[in-house]
């Protein structure tokens, strides 16, 4: 069994391979990958993601576009004038009300989903897409939902979702505790064995 350091070290050779960037060998499937890890390594993975982006740009001239779901939520709410209102609502009505109101404000899963639009508008010039902030954005955004909704906008670039939990090729378990709906369309980026 590979440890987290070995698996992280295999990311750069994998993503810089020309076949990976062209989504070759996937049997007409979309180029969505998941790098799963135990949530105790969250800070290590965050640091390594930044290192990988810098290294791949400097050594290979590839542009990795990172989308942190949590940061996207905050930016959208702030731009709409909802962020302070959310804080006030949480004080008065509790977290559940804020989660539901935020989902509605973001139009999640609708044709005009603001998170999907945000990502779509910022894809140009990206060779590879990194999706981070999965754990921070829960329970507002669920991992299988965002992947399903990104199928229509991320088509040319491979997408790597950094997932704090377990992906077994069919189901996602956030924090190795919260089972999400099944998701069968992504590939494991780096094997654990």
Secondary structure elements and pairings:
Layout: H1 4-9, H2 11-15, H3 18-21, E1 32-37, H4 42-60, E2 64-68, H5 69-80, H6 83-93, H7 95-106, H8 114-120, E3 128-132, H9 134-137, H10 143-150, E4 159-167, E5 171-174, E6 178-182, E7 187-188
Parallel strand pairs: 1-4, 1-7, 2-3, 3-4
Antiparallel strand pairs: 4-5, 5-6
Helix pairs in contact: 6-7
Notes on the structure:
The chain is of the alpha/beta class and 193 residues long. It has one domain. The protein is 46% helix and 19% strand. It is built from ten helices and seven strands. The chain has helices at 4-9, 11-15, 18-21, 42-60, 69-80, 83-93, 95-106, 114-120, 134-137, 143-150, and strands at residues 32-37, 64-68, 128-132, 159-167, 171-174, 178-182, 187-188. Strands 1, 2, 3, 4, 5, 6 and 7 form a seven-stranded mixed sheet that branches. A hairpin with a 3-residue loop joins β4 and β5. α6 (83-93) runs antiparallel to α7. The longest helix has 19 residues, at 42-60. It is globular, with a radius of gyration of 17 Å. The model has no long low-confidence stretch (mean pLDDT 90).
